[in-house]
Design goal:
The chain is mainly beta. The protein is 13% helix and 37% strand.
């Protein structure tokens, strides 16, 4: 399993988002969201930066708004403030959802997702079709734990290095 170091990921994600190696500028928007503007005018929000730090190997977002980043097969949004449980995830049928570092990840495409910087505990809901097994992997590619749909609860994310929703 190919694991990208977090520092290299941040450099690559920054280069992809900026389109060059020129520095970006940052400011706070009226709603308090931290916004970075690259020299070509691309706006990068703190949710994008958070997702880039957590979701390794998939640094190119398809759509970015102040509170949401969409990839092909996954959506990341700001998690509501406060202590969350699995019942608070609002995870659609056929999806695997979790909160990592105050970011809600909603996976709906069957593929292996390489992640990094997953720490702490957080709620998850495996709301895929009954019997679908989500797998969470260690750095060496061995299975750390599995979740068979339907299942919800709290997980310890460290040290998860990749996952496969199906």
């Amino acid at each position: 399993m190919n694991i990208i170091k977090p520092a290299a990921l941040l450099v690559a994600a920054t280069a992809l988002l900026a389109g060059s190696t020129v520095a970006a500028t940052a400011s706070d928007s009226p709603d308090g969201t931290r916004v970075t503007a690259t020299p070509d005018g691309t706006r990068v929000t703190s949710i994008q930066q958070t997702v880039d730090q957590v979701l390794a190997g998939h640094p190119k977002a398809l759509k970015v708004t102040a509170n949401e980043v969409k990839y092909d097969g996954m959506t990341a949004t700001r998690a509501p403030k406060g202590k969350l449980g699995a019942q608070d995830l609002d995870c659609a049928y056929g999806h695997l959802c979790m909160v990592v570092k105050n970011t809600k990840f909603d996976y709906y495409k069957c593929q292996t997702w390489t992640v990094s910087n997953w720490t702490g505990d957080g709620p998850f809901t495996n709301n895929q079709t009954p019997g679908t097994v989500a797998k969470f992997y260690n750095q060496d590619g061995s299975v750390r734990w599995t979740s068979t749909a339907y299942q919800a609860g709290t997980a310890t994310w460290d040290p998860i290095w990749s996952l496969r929703p199906c």
